[in-house]
Design brief:
Peptidase_S8/S53_dom_sf; three-stranded parallel sheet; Subtilisin-like protease; globular; alpha/beta; 21% strand; 257 residues; serine-type endopeptidase activity; protease; hydrolase; Rossmann fold
Length: 257
């Protein structure tokens, strides 16, 4: 990419992330979190759970050839605006995100000279005067900045869309017609079609016993964690050589996958 535009005033905090001509800003905000929670989180701009990385890449990730999911859907991946410069403003920590940190990040982004703000967080506060994202987005809009916010992880029922202020563009997920499927064949010859990311096949003529995850619970582990197949929640001796049935997590994925 070419030189960074001269209007850009941002920078990277010296805390684990190095800027370049694509990533031109990275800052974190935790003073509000410290005042509310009483502890100071590890001060770093680096993403520790993957959420910020994938949302920023979805918005402005560059072209990545030969991308796939364990060999599935091989092709070129890219974000919505692959030629865009990107900057990260980290406001969320292990126990959540505070209004003051969110407001501070918006102020900093406005000062730095961003053109678009992509905000992948939210809540169910419909009173704009008590909603930090709505308030901050309004000020960004007054400064000529387009604000795009996530609609949340709930639905498709009424009243569950987050970030619905009229001065923001609210983006929701949609369904698609591409499934990564696999078939489980039971001993009674019944076939069950399911979604799977596994590319390795079991021997087609061999049957494996089924076991419910809670029946394989490890000692001193709650039934809840065992049902979801949390890491370390199952007794390895009880599940060895078996197909384990787990419940999915609180959002549309299996926590233990």
């Amino acid at each position: 990419m070419g030189e960074i535009p001269g209007k850009w005033k941002g920078s990277c905090h010296k805390s684990g992330v190095v800027c370049n001509r694509k990533l031109i800003g990275a800052k974190y905000f935790n003073k509000g979190y410290k005042s509310v929670v009483g502890i100071t989180p590890n001060g770093t701009t680096r993403d520790t759970d993957g959420h910020g990385t994938h949302t920023l890449s979805t918005a402005g990730g560059n072209f990545v050839p030969n991308a796939s999911l364990f060999g599935f859907a091989n092709g070129t991946a890219k974000g919505g605006s692959p030629a865009a410069r990107v900057a990260s403003y980290k406001v969320c920590w292990p126990l959540g995100c505070t209004d003051s940190d969110i407001l501070a990040a918006f102020d900093e982004a406005i000062h730095d000279g961003v053109d678009v703000l992509s905000v992948s967080l939210g809540g169910f506060s419909f009173d704009y005067f008590s909603n930090s994202i709505a308030l901050a987005s309004f000020h960004a809009m007054l400064n000529g900045i387009a604000v795009v916010c996530s609609a949340g992880n709930y639905g498709p029922f009424n009243g569950l869309v987050e970030n619905s202020a009229p001065w923001v563009t609210t983006v929701a997920a949609s369904s698609l017609d591409r499934d990564l499927t696999n078939i489980v064949t039971l001993s009674n010859k019944k076939h069950i079609l399911g979604k799977s990311r596994t590319v390795w096949e079991l021997p087609s003529k061999k049957l494996y016993p089924l076991i419910n995850s809670f029946d394989a619970k490890a000692d001193n582990v709650s039934i809840h964690k065992a049902r979801l197949c949390h890491r370390g929640a199952l007794n390895p001796l009880k599940v060895k050589g078996k197909i384990v049935i787990c419940l999915r997590g609180s959002i549309d994925r299996c926590i233990g996958c």
